[in-house]
Amino acid sequence: MSSNKFVHVVNFYLKPGLSAAEIKTFEEGVSTLEKIETLIMFNVGKPAETDRPVIDKSYSYCLLTVFNDEAGHDVYQDHPVHLAFIERCNALWDKVVIFDSVTIPQ
């Protein structure tokens, strides 16, 4: 059995000109994803203040989730909490960019 973890990173690009209430709706919505039971790590944040040419700070929020395996990620994708977040908040973003990866053996 593999001990490689499945990492799912989502960069959200919110629509310009959102109200404070709309941003709060997004932040509250994305935070609900932490409740999904197959997660082993969850973090959501905004671009840091670091400034180097190789850093892309064009996104609004970055969601980092880690699962024991791809099957845990698949449960997350179809989970009612995830689907409710998308339905409630997808009108607030222009695009999302997703990076899925599997950790390399240590």
UniProtKB/TrEMBL annotation:
User: Which residue windows are coiled coil?
Assistant: none
**Where do the Stress-response A/B barrel domain residues begin and end?**
6-101
Q: Pfam families per the record?
A: Dabb
State the name under which the record lists this protein: Dabb family protein
